[in-house]
Amino acid sequence: MGITTGREWQRLTADSDEEEEDESSFVESEATVDTCKKWRNIAGFWLLGLCNNFAYVVMLSAAHDILSHQKVPGGNGTRPTPHTTLTRNFSNTSRYDCNVISTGAVLLADILPTLLIKFSAPFYIHLLPYGLRVIVCIFTALGSFLLVAFSAGPAQSFAGVVLASISSGLGEITFLALTSFFDSAVVSAWSSGTGGAGLLGALSYLGLTQAGLTPQHTLLTMNIIPVVMLASYLLLAPPPHAPRWGWGAPPPPLHSPSSTHQPLLGDAATFQNKSQIHSISLQEKGKVVKGLLKYLLPLAVVYFAEYFINQGLFELLYFKEAPLSHPQQYRWYQMLYQAGVFLSRSSASCVRIRHIWILAVLQCLNMVFFLGAVYFMFLPSIYLFFILIVYEGLLGGASYVNTFHCVSAESQPEHREFAMGVSCIADTLGISLSGAVAIPVHNYFCCLS
């Protein structure tokens, strides 16, 4: 048995210290890389939410202009020009300043294709790679802006709105499902991004038309958004098992993953659970949907009420004494609503609401109040109405972000991707029903003398 000298002991101790320092620096380096990737993914999903909903929001903000088919010169939409193809007055005796067609018709064109996609997607969407879906979203968004910008009539405009709906619907079900492969923080980022789309989309349309651009030129400048969507998707740094471009997740590795193949945000157990291909039977899907109804039904009610207000009642609330024309007032309504949505969709890190039905009740009370305001015309000031619109948007945004957080938290790991994808049907169904109801309600009010 050898005797260790003092010099040898110092050498061994130094070697041990160096190994500990190397290991410590390696761990710190890995932690730094994971943190960078986490923020990179959060930024990517925020931008994806922004770009995905942008065209949809712009079409709703431009609904009054689309139906009036106005070529707005320097007057910012204050007067129709000879190009106008739809008469703005529903009848000469009506007490309301009405378009021939309700803006609810634009809402239906903007939401029915989305509803069709979301209802049918669970049967085939898993067969399509994420990359292909994103490419379709990009080209349909580009087509929507171009078709509406160069529209020669309402039919072409509605075709452009339909393309915007396809882009938004396919994008929502795609990116929400993709969040299941990342840390739960990206759900808040996605939700905040969709709220930002509402605010920036409505604000940019309002601002550019107020600055003197025609609706046509305003829409053409927005073709940059689909390009940003592609860049945002490429920005993501997914775990190795996330099926970003391929036709599905690769089979799990035969050996335990090394440190370089650990998930970006989670432990090895999370990686193994998500890497396994779990085929969900139709019976399992039914059970998952049944368990989600306590969140999905209130969400559908919230969106029915708020979009009935937005596309059925907004255009009828025209304040003649205000310093804004009718088209300008409508654009301000849409922008303020989206501002409220953005604020509440970005609040998930501060406030969590599990009882979505409370938000549904409050939004239904809003709908009844606005309906009375249209019929009796008792609102004294447009500025009071502005405040009420922001409140309406706050309720809608809060219901959206809290619903998806609850769904994500309560779903089993093997069901989460399906649950997140199918949950986005609820708001779309509520919006579709509101558009169908808004048209006859619009016609009823516009026939009143």
Q: How are the secondary structure elements laid out?
A:
Blueprint: H1 6-61, H2 63-68, H3 103-124, H4 130-149, H5 154-178, H6 185-210, H7 215-221, H8 224-235, H9 268-275, H10 282-313, H11 326-345, H12 356-376, H13 382-410, H14 416-423, H15 425-446
Description:
This protein is mostly helical and 449 residues long. It has one domain (37-248, 280-446): Growth Hormone, Chain: A, CATH 1.20.1250.20. It is 70% helix and 0% strand. It has 15 helices and no strands. The protein is globular. 48% of the residues are buried. Mean pLDDT is 80; it is low at 70-89 and 247-277.
Helix-strand makeup class: mainly alpha
Helix content: 55-70%
The backbone outline, from C-alpha atoms, is globular
Mean pLDDT equals 80
* Binned strand content: under 5%
State Rg: 26 Å
CATH fold name, please?
Growth Hormone, Chain: A
Transmembrane segments: 45-63, 100-119, 131-152, 158-178, 185-206, 218-236, 355-376, 382-401
Main location: other
Keywords: Endosome, Glycoprotein, Lipoprotein, Lysosome, Membrane, Methylation, Phosphoprotein, Prenylation, Transmembrane, Transmembrane helix, Transport
Family: Belongs to the battenin family.
